[in-house]
Amino acid sequence: MKISYNWLQSYFEKPLPPVTELDSIIALHSFETEGIENVDGDNVIDIDVLPNRAHDCLSHMGIAKEVSALLGDREIIERYKHDKEYPKSEINLDVDIQNTEKCRRYMGRVIENIKIGETPDWIKNFLTAVGQQSINNVVDATNFVMLDLGNPIHAFDLDKLSGPKIIIRNAETGEGITTLGQKADQVELDDSMLVIADETDPLAIAGIKGGNKAEVDSNTTNIVLEVANFEPISTRETRKKTGIATDSSKRFENELSPEIMPDIMERLTLLILEIAGTDNTKLGNIVDVYPTPTEPAIVSVELSHINTILGLELKTADVTYIFDRLNFTYTETDGRFSVSIPTERLDLRIPQDLIEEIGRVYGYENIPTQSLTDIPFTPAVSGKFALAMSVRQKLLADGYNEVMTYTFTDHGKTQVKYSADDKNFLRANLTDGLTVAFDKNKKNAPLFGTGPKDTKMFEIGTVWTPTEQLHIAIADAKGIQETTLEKYATDNNLTGADYNFNQTTTTTFTPWSPYPFTTRDISVWVPSDVTPESLEAIYGELGEGLLVRMDQVDKYEKDDRVSYAYRLVFQSMDRTLTDDEITPITDAIYKKLTDNGWEVR
Amino acid sequence: MNDQSGKIHPISDIINQVSEIFVDLGFEIADGPEMEDQWHNFDALNIPANHPARDMQDTFFVKPDSDTAPDQREDKVMRTHTSNVQVRFMEKLRDAGQTPPFKIIAPGKVFRNEATDATHEVQFHQIEGLVVGEGVSIGHLKGALEHFLKKMFGNDVEMRLRPGFFPFVEPGVEVDLKFNGKWLELLGAGMVHPNVLENVGIDSKKYSGFAFGVGIDRLAMMKWGINDIRLFYQGDLRLHNNLK
């Protein structure tokens, strides 16, 4: 989530640390951060809120609470202040939740005689910083409060409703809705989806997106505010079915606490009155339908348990110090803490959750490392692993290279649900995949300094026949042989008892060229005191950076002369080489060899 | 050239290196199937049925054999991590009437149904580590990982733990490695969630444990500067040839 530094600062009187410092505090103790972007003088931190904290931290308030806990020296101030009194609206809003599983709580409120207009700059600036467009003061207020406090909000134009009644019901199959910003595109609804409706039409896809019918526009004067709580799984399913993902759907899918709603309705009201209120504004009562209130959560944890899991020796006071910073209410008796979980913290339900809070605020960097030697255990040896190790060692020693190919293929005996139909089977053998790789490698043999006949490779891998089995396939000049790993091991007297972790000396990788290589063979007679190294020096020097490999392929001695045959491999990293480029190189080599008085064969 | 040894696949090479480090610390190498039932891949690991990880886009679901009666069909998946081996090992322990402590690692191939690019593949390799005993703490986790990373990347290596979230651990951490002067996310770890222990009959009041999972492909790419994960699975010997 994009978090504006200036917005975050508005929660605190005391200045925040510089943005880079704040970024690293958040990264080490709360969430990974993806970078800081400067937007019109504000700094925006992109924060990857963890899935278990998406209940409470997809908001500036959530992050402000984190910052308050982590810095430990500043209080969050109340920023919604509007003290003008307004007369009561006489309109009686009716809210009817017909599906109380999918809509857990709904709060509605009428405000009459507001004035749609420009949004104050301070809100506009915050919204712009986090990439939101300004629409009008009321719509911006709903967006602002969502990004500020975390609960999505909707505003309807009351005069466009069939009456002052909001119904939360299942959509009817075949029913459609034109969503905000769309002209004629109807979204097809079905009875698995929840809608907000008046007595004639759907007004919004619940928790996902509003419809055109009751859109707040420049002529709107009377509005209904919605602060609601929708069930996560059905929101997710509707989002997937409709393909409409919004800031709202994201928050409901991650589950919000219905208990946060009253505060949010109060603050939303204050903000709308402040920026859209008129001398004639009338304020309706909050209509709150909350069929099954959620029980407050209390979680207990023992000091000894905290210390066991974290590997620390904390005292009661160390723990209460952290709980205070997190603004937890708790009691403590004989090292047992009983914590009343803040309503929005749906992630805190078991003692280990509280231990994590203590650990991350205390700082994992402050936990001393411990040796594993005090955990006694006599390991057995995995038969399968050891056998594969033995077989691998034998084949490597015999000059075979180990490769891996894909498990997914276009034929076999077991199918997987895979979108690409050339990959929707599990391989039933290794041979088919290895055959393709083997042919390719034979063609590339000059790059490896071998002849095609010397290409030797093997794969140890799982196949489904359809039973899951570990196979080995070996490819060489005799063809490809495949069998079960067990049978191969038995036939070759390998038991797995003798395996060892052979260390390689690999240090670095160089990417290869995607362009084809070409070879030239050069044979030359030289006096016997001329070394092959001096020939290689000539080839290397005249190769003009295109010579990627040279291999001596033949050596023949007669009288006091030696004939050396070399295979030169040319390849470019950035183009396909042509004969016109290679011929001048080989000509220069021939000339140099002849100038030295040597006979080119 | 014929009398030369063949070259090991870089993934096997890293698996050997990592395994050796942990075997020296007294770990057992354990294994399990690549095609797995949903209990061992998800439920036992505290990944509930509505978790996004069980969605089509991440998991390869195996099509049940059409000859099998619908109520007999097992809902199998290609394992999305080698964490299934944790569950299988602990179930075996329970069935044998044994109790912790134990230390295991599980190297193996895993599968994710996602779009492929230079850093994403539909198949890759992972090593899972699991230690359970009385009094096992985050300090032990840090000790094990620090030892591992020093052996793997040299004594100067720096490591840090940050909060992370994985359903099968609580607390959960992400582990970063300072590599060429930059912090890189290397692996996920944490203290085994009590639900995971209880699911396999281990008393979570008496025992605690840590688990970690590290991507082998990523380790190989970091260690040797390999720029594309897909190069591992082409059976192409240019990979071996260009590793020097």
Please explain how this structure is put together.
The complex is a heterodimer of chains A (601) and B (244). The model of chain A has no long low-confidence stretch (mean pLDDT 94). In chain A, strand 10 and strand 11 (202-205) form a beta hairpin. In chain A, 30% of the residues lie in helices and 26% in strands. Chain A contains 17 helices and 28 strands. In chain A, the strands form 8 sheets. In chain A, strands 4-7-10-11-12 form a 5-stranded mixed beta sheet. Chain A has a 4-stranded antiparallel beta sheet with strand order 6-13-5-14. With 244 residues, chain B is α+β, with helices and mostly antiparallel strands. Chain B has one domain: Bira Bifunctional Protein, Domain 2 (BirA Bifunctional Protein, domain 2, 2-Layer Sandwich), CATH 3.30.930. Helix content of chain B is 27%, strand content 27%. Chain B is built from 7 helices and 9 strands; from the N terminus they run H-E-E-H-E-H-E-E-H-E-E-E-H-E-H-H. Chain B has helices at residues 10-24, 38-41, 84-95, 138-153, 194-199, 216-224, 238-241; strands spanning 28-29, 35-37, 76-78, 102-111, 123-133, 158-164, 169-179, 182-192, 208-215. In chain B, strand 7 and strand 8 (182-192) form a beta hairpin. Chain B starts with 9 loop residues before the first helix and ends with a helix. The relative contact order of chain B is 0.17. The chains are: A alpha+beta (601), B alpha+beta (244).
